[in-house]
């Protein structure tokens, strides 16, 4: 096949689409004069069966080894004609198309100019075809397993779906428990389902599923390889508690000398824990964890006579000598479901968060109304930072209940001043839900006011719920407050009612800031591991906003949940199911095709400068040492499974040693000449 | 210099497969008419365009060159159009230094949905090159000793 090129040129009429403007006969006659062209034909519809048969017959009878089809755009029928070549026994990459419809007959109504252009385009295709090479269509095997990073509701749902389908799942979670933010919530809008009631069964399922290997308190450290064959390294951080022996009884936690003195992250800091703790009663796994940063024994080397937790543990599970464990495994696909951080309300200093005790974020308030939260579900005024040391026999003073609660929406969303232009999509509804819960828990006489910009109740049942909450007496005032200050023991919210254009000062006991959802502050870790892109809002970027919403630019890596952009629970679950199904496609087929038009290095001329290595957006190129005539030299080498065939390396190579297959310099330069010459 | 009024320039365009080539196809499906002076070479990414291709086109007789890719941030290969933009800016300075008018070598962002913009780009390029006339800077001249 490497002999002299024998080219067949096939010019399509496309009914009158091409032939109506371009003089097809003239183009065919011109094509016959071109070098290495042995046959040129025209036909009414080349893509039809008889049209394709013309090509296969000529391959068989005339020994054609290159084919040029002048017809519509290659974006339309290149796959069709590649198959034609394949069925005719030719390598499919011996095809070159000349676009004489979309970019010629349809856009130029002057027949002479159109015909002239068609000739040029055909000539360019022929001179490129002379230089075409056979390419291998490669397939790689796909490991039937999936790594899921993050075990919030999105990660949990994706893990369960994939595991139920029979594939192995490695579910890696950074914190000591699965559940994510959803586990912190009390009720879910608009149905007022108890969040824990619908989530905890799933949390238990992921822990018990035979196909899921759950790694909590663990972090992905390294990801190498490519779709089908990722090499993963995970660090399982030491809890200093033997997971097999711990029964979760909690004797240790109550004995800890620091019990009740460390802000509990799970309770957003309004609840306290000790150095050995379980984030919340339904945590999965129900195993205790010693916090290395705070534990007296681990930081100071001494905890009284002996660590009290160790003495208290009847199971003998506490072991201060336990080390981190690093595990390595292979997976075929990866789902990123790392979730979000809530907006840091300190960035809006006018609201006095962090200054006034009773300015809360909605997530703090969520913990407060939660029956298993630090206040046992009671809405009470907070006295932060006060040491609440109970003395023996002394009854603690009953905390005050707020008489009025004010919500402020869009804190950190739709706000250019903090760099977040987007809408967080959940705040309007969770505010309505929390407003309802205040009425529910504190009583109907508790005055509830919501300051809003616009209420976006777009989902199923959302508008109805918003209506219901207003009927319950929650007062909505349209206006974004400018300031909150303290007057006596009351908080004053300054705002303008923009519907009546009246400035107002609103007196209240408690302010809840409806903070938006932000990309995680440790987003960078995953970006560095997986080379993910970010959209302008800094959430992870999907491959296509409409048609590939769960894929990323890296094959085999998918997104689920809020790490891709703000979502409510149903949307996060839907996307997780989408990501699971996308990840299962390559795992189920067992094989995946990799790009054939990849770059290739001429190792005899490469000088190993490494320009291409730095340029490659897919880290597909590395420098390797080879033996060149007895001397060790470094040259670039392309990992064809990673290369996507963009050709950026080829354009940068100073010696022309790295070239993109089918778009090599020697293939493009004749095209340039054919089109350039007048 | 030739008579500018009847001068029809010859322009070589490098279009990326995913955005600009698709945009040019869309101009076709929308039957948007534009001058036939531009001939297209399809590359997978504007990042594939070696500056030497541009020089080569000008040497071979093209009066102008157009490079068109995806809008910044939309590159199918994440960064290719940024590479193209950086190379283009350096190259344009160099070409200007050589005495090549900046109108001859252009770069544009045309997305797959911008068939109408493709026509505008073409008209702009063609008119720009018409203004400066045929490319003869790189023509080899027989020196008369």
Description:
Chain A has 678 residues and is an alpha/beta fold. In chain A, the strands form twelve sheets. Chain A has a five-stranded parallel sheet. In chain A, strands 20-27-21-22-23 form a five-stranded parallel sheet. In chain A, α5 (111-129) runs antiparallel to α18 (665-676) and α6 (153-164) packs across α7. The two termini of chain A are 33 Å apart. Chain B is an alpha/beta fold. Helices cover 39% and strands 16% of the residues of chain B. Chain B has four helices and four strands. Chain B has helices at 20-29, 51-60, 80-98, 115-132, and strands spanning 11-16, 38-43, 64-69, 105-109. At the A-B interface, α3, α4, α5, α17 and α18 of A face α1, β2, α2 and α3 of B.
Task: Give me some keywords for this one.
heterodimer, A: 678 residues, alpha/beta, five-stranded parallel sheet, 34 strands, elongated, B: 145 residues, four-stranded parallel sheet, 4 helices, 39% helix, globular
Strand order of the largest sheet of chain A: 10-7-6-18-29
**Count of alpha and pi helical runs of chain B:** 4
Mean pLDDT over all positions of chain B:
90
Average pLDDT reading of chain A: 93
Layout of strands and helices, then pairs:
The complex is a heterodimer of chains A (678) and B (145).
Chain A lengths: L6 E6 L11 H9 L4 E7 L5 H14 L3 E6 L2 H14 L7 E5 L1 H5 L5 H19 L8 E4 L3 E5 L3 H12 L3 E5 L14 E2 L4 E2 H14 L3 E4 L2 E9 L2 E8 L14 H5 L6 E2 L8 E2 L2 E2 L11 E2 L5 H5 L7 H5 L12 E7 L1 E4 L3 E3 L16 E3 H8 L34 E8 L15 H16 L4 E6 L9 H10 L3 E4 L4 E5 L2 E8 L4 E7 L1 E6 L1 E3 L3 H8 L26 E3 L9 H21 L1 E4 L4 E3 L9 H5 L5 E8 L2 E8 L9 H5 L5 E3 L4 H12 L2
Parallel strand pairs in A: 1-2, 1-3, 3-4, 6-7, 6-18, 7-10, 18-29, 20-27, 21-22, 21-27, 22-23
Antiparallel strand pairs in A: 5-30, 8-9, 11-12, 12-17, 13-14, 15-16, 19-28, 24-25, 25-26, 31-34, 32-33
Helix pairs in contact in A: 1-5, 2-3, 5-18, 6-7, 6-15, 11-12, 12-13
Chain B lengths: L10 E6 L3 H10 L8 E6 L7 H10 L3 E6 L10 H19 L6 E5 L5 H18 L13
Parallel strand pairs in B: 1-2, 1-3, 3-4
Helix pairs in contact in B: 1-4
